[in-house]
Design a protein that fits this description.
The chain has about 525 residues and is α/β, with parallel strands linked by helices. It has 15 helices and 17 strands. Helix content is about 35%, strand content about 20%. The protein is globular, with a radius of gyration of 24 Å.
Length: about 525
Amino acid sequence: MAVEALEENPLRAGLRSRRKPDPSAIVVFGVTGDLTHRKLVPSLYRLYAEGLLPAGFAIVGVARRDWDDGQFRDTIRGALDEFLGDPVREEVWQGFAAGLRFCPGEFDDPETYRRLGEVLAKTSEERVHSGNRLYYLAVPPSVYAPIIDGLGGADLGRDGASHGWSRIVVEKPFGHDGASARLLNARLRRWFREDQIYRIDHYLGKETVQNILVFRLANGIFEPVWNRQYIDNVQITVAEDIGVESRGPYYEEAGAIRDMIQNHVLQLLALIAMEPPVAFDAVAVRDEKVKVFRSLHPLIGSDVDRSVVRGQYSTGLSHGEPVAGYQQEEGVAEGSLTETFVAMRVFLDTWRWAGVPFYLRTGKRMPKRVTEISLQFKQPPLLLFGRGMRGAPEPNVLAVQVQPDEGITLKFGSKVPGPTERVHPVHMDFRYGTSFGEKTSEAYERLILDCLIGDSTLFTRDDGVEAAWGFVDPIVARWYAVGTAPAPYEAGSWGPDAAEDLVDRDKREWRRL
């Protein structure tokens, strides 16, 4: 069954209907990096091509290269040719390239920020005419501190009517633990107000993730059953079919729980579990998300042993091809105890969700790349149909597919045609691509546009970051205290056997993906 769209191609129209941002300079630190080339540059180009960037925009790149503006433009054009996915339209490129500027320098050198101030002043005089500045830190976390202090020390973070606004975008991971997150928050607040700080999580820019609250709150048939009376369990899976690739040194420091659980997975949980906000604005929405993080029942000491599974992929097959194990990856220490897989059972101490288990799992080298949130409903109190069947009929499931095929599926039982009363599961599917006739916009496009407009609804607040770390830190502390190695699992599998046991002992099972 397919859900028919009521309007033709509203996705881009939806973006265009938003208030167009004022002219501004977008300063990207780390313009030679992978994130900039793969995500930021294509997203900025698409926004410009769609008329969503104002005519007076400028993109100022900052990096440790001795380039001029022309060499910077050549590099950006090369990134578009490689990662855009569509041919670059020459007439669009000419207008886009006119706004590109470059500022060379080391991130820890005060001279870089003096020079950047001069570039911004000249760009504002020639092109932007507003003094608005968005600073994007597309760099490793190790250089956040010198950039933040460099901007503040050069008085480039000022925000006021006489010289426009200033905002700063910080990529995850936001801290390595609760203590480092608090220090980073304090450093940012030394130079910027909280409303100037945008902690970005690209998962929250995905169309299906944004649709969760609309699905819940704009449809009267769903919110009444969104609670412990009707929901048996909730499962969130964020699976990747790739290994750590070239990120071995980073992963050795982070592991799956810091890389995925503390941010992506808990953010998805918050959107599913939060109470309806009093308004759909940044303050109200983020208030309710923080309440979810604070309501997570703590996992401390032996509770971690019973409710959390950590694993590490070994050699195996990925899509039929042999692949190395984690400890054979470049930059990974021999005998490493870093986890590449985490599964856990958590509960929320709230009236709505008391007693409902939330099963979370994420891992590298899974059989497929998929992110899904599924809500399994309780079984009917009496089995009136299909009594001759072995076991109970399959439960009703509402599944939100975040990637790769964005959509929503509802599984329910239907009578099989014929004289018998056999019940068979069927699916009602909604897919963005087929229903709206157009693929969804990239997550970074929406989030960059929100930064420029000043809408922080989809960004994480300081207390939300610290509350999430408050849940994760005791789990990591227990692992270090016990010193148990993560359970091995074969590449191309769904994780170690202990992950199956985690749900089996509750007489449940992971949803097949």
